[in-house]
Amino acid sequence: MSDPLLTVEDLAVTFPDPDGSDTRAVDGVSLSVEAGEIHGLVGESGSGKSVTARTVLRLLDDADVSASRLAYRGEDLLAKSEREMRAVRGDEIGMVFQDALSALNPVMTVGEQIAEVVRHHGDVDESTSLLSELRRKYVTGTSKSTASWRRAVELLETVGIPDPEQRASEYPHQLSGGQRQRVMIAQALAGDPSLIIADEPTTALDVTVEAGILTELRELCADFNVAILLITHDLGVVAQTCDHVTVMYSGSVMEHGPTDDIFEAPAHPYTEGLLRSIPEGAKRGDELATIPGSAPDPRDRPAGCPFRDRCPEATEACTDSLPEHALSAEHHTYCHHRPHEDGGRDDVRTSPQPER
Ligand SMILES: Nc1ncnc2c1ncn2[C@@H]1O[C@H](COP(=O)(O)OP(=O)(O)OP(=O)(O)O)[C@@H](O)[C@H]1O
Ligand SMILES: [Mg+2]
Q1: On the chain, which terminus has fewer CB atoms closer than 10 Å, C or N?
Q2: Looking at the domain assignment, is residue 285 inside a domain?
Q3: Is 303 among the domain residues?
Q4: pLDDT (mean) for 205-211
Q5: Which ligand is closest to the CA of 250, given by its number?
Q6: Strand 6-15 vs strand 69-72: parallel, antiparallel, or unpaired?
Q7: Which residue has the higher pLDDT, 352 or 271?
Q8: 191 CB under 6 A from ligand 1?
Q9: d(Cα 307, Cα 276) in Å, to the nearest integer?
Q10: For ligand 1, is residue 23 a contact (CB within 6 Å)?
Q11: Mean pLDDT for the stretch of residues 315-329
Q12: Domain span including residue 151
């Protein structure tokens, strides 16, 4: 099998604090995203999802980062210079944030913001010198006859914005929340990336608008063969959108595998708790934080399993380590007590699951 598109192995991210109480936001996270798949990264607030995503793009400069591997298409992201990373961001990996209003430039039309990415991606023969960009931005505006503008309008149409020509000339505040998220997706697509990291792209939206955008993401994934790392705290979104899912808790991965396997047979007590707390399976809009208790303080996280204080099955062993068990080639859980149904916890089955 070829290398995954994105490989994260044993990632640790710490925010140093001068008084010594460093925040270990991410503590040994591994995940891999295959080309063209939608991979869900799910976990309750503060579990380290955004920090993981931002670290992949090297957007956190105040953090200490270590990993045994952080690779995109087999290239070490931690070894890249800032200049090389700028080429990765946008051209290779696009990013969509939760709050489009603050992520978009309020004084530029949305068409121009997308056109700018198109020009810098180098698909069109238009000057991207500082002077011409400044002139476009503050003096003349983008000429509507340029290839980059036409491409921007096309992309707005691709992401399902009605009347894209008219919309392209509008400013972010003139659009609805759902349309702004679509603009951000169009902007991410403008660099023709192979991976889009979408950090809670629909959390701020109402349920019907969210459904439309998730459908759009699935279609884009299929039509453009772009992979999506979809960050969410909503199990319903995962169930309806993702091929694979990684469940995080307090900076660590608890379980990962094909979405169907995890929903049908969750292996970690944390994942089981999450699913059990939702009456008829996962429904859109259901929040994750329904298990009694709270996560450990990331400035003082104990050794062993971070979930143990809330876990009905915790034993002495959970205080010292977080062992990995393979239930299949793709479905892994991190727990002393699993798998236990069929044949004891060290009885690791390695037969691959059927492809979804
Ligand atoms: N720049 C920073 N400096 C210090 N601590 C930080 C910083 N950014 C994040 N953290 C801490 O890292 C931990 C993980 O944060 P992160 O934003 O990744 O959580 P999350 O899973 O994305 O949560 P949410 O669902 O609320 O977005 C939190 O305890 C947070 O307070
Ligand atoms: Mg977040």
Answers
A1: N
A2: no
A3: no
A4: 87
A5: 1
A6: antiparallel
A7: 271
A8: no
A9: 16
A10: yes
A11: 91
A12: 93-192
